[in-house]
Amino acid sequence: MGAMSESVPVRCPACRHERPYTAPSYPCACGAPVVPVLDRRTAPAAVVHRVWDEEWITLRCAACGRQGQWPRPELGCPCGTVLRIPVAGQTGPGRRPAAVAKPAPAPVPAPAADGRRAFRSVAIRTALDAVTAAALYLRWLGHGDVRRADQRPTSGIGLAAKGLLAQVDPSVRPASLRDVECLWLTAMTESSRCVYFSLAGYADDARAGADRLGVPLFLLDPTGTPRPVNATAAALDAEGA
């Protein structure tokens, strides 16, 4: 997270407990980190019902002007309430101008063994953190055009890039064989490769089916780092896009 990320105090409307929140830093396709501008005049709202369009924000990179969609910032309160953090320039479904994100200094992580920069992620506290971690990882692999998928999968949240479909499953149950097969079938109809990210792991038959179909499976640990579960995922992690 860049040094220019904005930090604000956030008070939970449920328990009235106040916690500091630091805006996430998202990597633009041009390589420049961007940070959403938090709306200090609007109080955070508790997430009661999730609406697909409301879970995304549109940001314009201050370095290159490119617009990109990212998961809306959220904060998990210790009382169990999930808070949606207001972002300046985001006016709700149907009227969503692009907020110009703050430029942030590019981090300088140590290089990986193959010469790539070491992967940097976000700690996973909410479902949207899991989506952010998966998107960051796909960009690290070399998919610079990661975006929200046009169609929502049968479970979890879908991401897409050129020639790739990804499914992020933030539920507490292991992904099933049906989950993996549905992703594979959808990718086949779009002539794309696919990859699955899960927080809770995979059922035994799901792992066997993924090996048969050649679907890379990743487990998202609490730090937001995807861990390869099968050989296909390990090869993808080592070689990149």
UniProtKB/TrEMBL annotation:
Residues 93-103 have a biased composition (Low complexity). Residues 93-112 are annotated as: Disordered. It comes from the Bacteria. This is Restriction endonuclease type IV Mrr domain-containing protein. It comes from Streptomyces phaeofaciens.
